[in-house]
Prior knowledge:
- Helix content is 37%, strand content 16%.
- It has ten helices and ten strands.
- The protein has helices at 53-67, 83-95, 109-117, 137-147, 161-178, 193-205, 221-227, 265-279, 285-300, 319-323, and strands at 25-27, 37-43, 75-79, 98-104, 121-125, 151-153, 184-186, 210-216, 259-263, 305-311.
- A six-stranded mixed sheet has the order 1-2-10-7-8-9, sandwiched between helices. Strands 5-4-3-6 form a four-stranded parallel sheet, sandwiched between helices.
- Strand 7, helix 6 and strand 8 form a beta-alpha-beta unit.
Amino acid sequence: MTDIAPSASAPQYPSVIDVVGKTPLVRLAKLFPQPHITVLAKLEFLNPTGSIKDRIVRHIVADAERSGRLVPGGTIVENTSGNTGAAIAMIAAARGYRAVLTMPDKVSSEKQNVLRALGAEIVVCPTGAPPGAPDHYVQRARDIAASIPGSFMINQYDNLKNAEAHYLGTAPEIWEQTQGHIDYFVASGSTGGTVSGIGQYLKERNPEIHILLPDPVGSIYFRYFNTGSFDRSDIGTYRVEGVGEDHIAGCMNFGVIDEVLQFNDDDAFQAARALAEAEGILAGGSSGANIWGCMQLATRLDEPATIVTVLPDTGLKYLSKIYNVPMV
Ligand code: PMP
């Protein structure tokens, strides 16, 4: 442990957007005491709105500004309640855009209020509206975007700039922070931007690096990866937020993934609690899923190995769901 560094360099930034990224990579030596195993976690919850999504929204907005699709006074529209919504609200505020975010009414009032506090306009839609119906929150976002001149949709699932943000940003940071000493990379996914962008970068530098996607029971990715097709009967509910999917996202590139392992809510939540207790790192449920994936690797590996993972968001968003619950 180091003490306060004398005259530590603490740079000044022109805006909060410039603080996004350059997150620390931290060794988890207490959770993974096996001498031959090194597990390194990238603390993405240290981004300004507490998640990895700040990176993709910054990249997509910057690209839209460069190409002229987003001009001063423009409006950013997206169907999202979660981390992407918070990132949009922050960046819209900092860049002077209007943000309109649609979401189903099952989204907690705390989450809606975070977006409102950052100045976004919230359009709440009935959770039960069937996909494609005018009051379904995805369709509503499309209709709003079509009705507002100069509006721009982030379209995080199918916008390849999402994966590119990780290819150009997160992945080179990991490469530099490890000096290329990586054997395994673990990341669960929803849009697939994280695992696909980082996976592609790492594979290009060293095709031997093994990319593992933990996928929740109730998501279609596990079967799709293993058989090339998906079955609607695989779609189910689960409590871990932000990972797994009920459709194939355009950003997901299975070509860079070597293995998909299925986890359940208990696996992820227990791993998140173990991370908090052993390392003092309070992260969300998808971080727990990633830690669970690292645990699966650590128990099966005999040879020395370095495993890198990401912790996409903070556990502060899930205190009542993951942490303040009776132990069984
Ligand atoms: N964890 C959380 C908490 C998220 O919000 C997301 C984004 N949906 C992910 C993980 C997965 O990231 P990606 O969309 O890049 O696959």
